[in-house]
Amino acid sequence: PTTAPTGGASAGLGAEVKIGAVLPMTGDVATFGKSSKQGLDLLIEQYNANGGINGSKIVLVVEDDENKPESGVAALQKLINNDKVVGVVGSVASKVTLAMAPVATQSKVPMVSSSSTNPGVTALAGNEYAFRACFIDPFQGTVIAKFASETLKAKTAAVLYDVANDYTVGLAEFFTAAFEAAGGKVVSSQSYNTGDTDFNAQLTTIKPLNPDVLILTDYYQTVGLIAKQARNLGITGTFLGGDGWDSPDLVTIAGDSIEGGYFSNHYSSEDTSPEVTQFLNDYKAKYNETPDALAALAYDAGKMLLEAIKKANSTDGAAIVEALKATDMTSVTGTIKLDENRNPVKPAVMIQIKDGKQAFASKVNP
Ligand code: PHE
Questions:
Q1: Distances from the Cα of 55 to the Cαs of 10, 84, 195, 238, 268, in angstroms?
Q2: Which of the residues 25, 52, 234, 249 has the least number of beta carbons within 10 Å of its own beta carbon?
């Protein structure tokens, strides 16, 4: 989709550049959608206050995917066919982004996921127009495993995952491989299905094994329920998880049960880098909230896309893809430079839930 240059806009871009976002604004991970949209809105406001992209005003169209793959695909098709967007940010969950990537590629519309960490998003054939701003789960699983064995001195682990969620399946697998390589033993691997709310059967199996750590690979809602039910059964192991824990609702759902747990994440609001400091100030001024990793990653994913459009100075998908591949920027979640598989190589942080709040525990370089 090329827009003819009009008015005072520079050659290559029209008076307006329309981009889309596909985000879980409703459903089981709605805080992810809200934070991501806020990060993206802030970014676009800042660009537009500074001349947009090469003089063209940026217009953002947001669609809800309800955290469902089929809704994500429908949202993407609407953005491409009706709104004629030149690029898309999204989605959050790997299972949704995995469904969208072939559609974007066939339509030659580049998409940049903020936070989908499953390797398949960029690795699968037919997903060549998919990019992301985050690290990937083989790294994240290793970070959690190393923290368990080296910092917590854990020897045994139980792993719980959702069979119908690519993210949790992958994270469970990558954790297991890394933990066993470090000399640990996964004594139980338990699965369930999306939407399940009763985990007593799985937890009853785990209890007599008394694992040092329990790896809860899911998003905050399910993690909250599992943590509660585990403590009710008298399970005492330390809870560990991944980026899917990052929501203010985790503690609301889990209460004291999640106290002392740790999760890996993409950024810490306690980071004192100039980029994080600036972002925190701007975000707090606009929303009166501390941004979580979803907000930071959506800001960075949007920036990757806008910078690529600017560099290409074109709305042509193939030209934007080439510019995206050459991404080299330092932003809120670190330096984003892509490897040969179009994945950023960047550090992770470990965060502890302490007194019901997130506290920075450590930073792990790739
Ligand atoms: N990494 C998760 C996925 O791929 C999504 C997520 C990222 C959730 C960051 C919370 C924070 O499904």
A1: 6, 19, 46, 53, 34
A2: 234
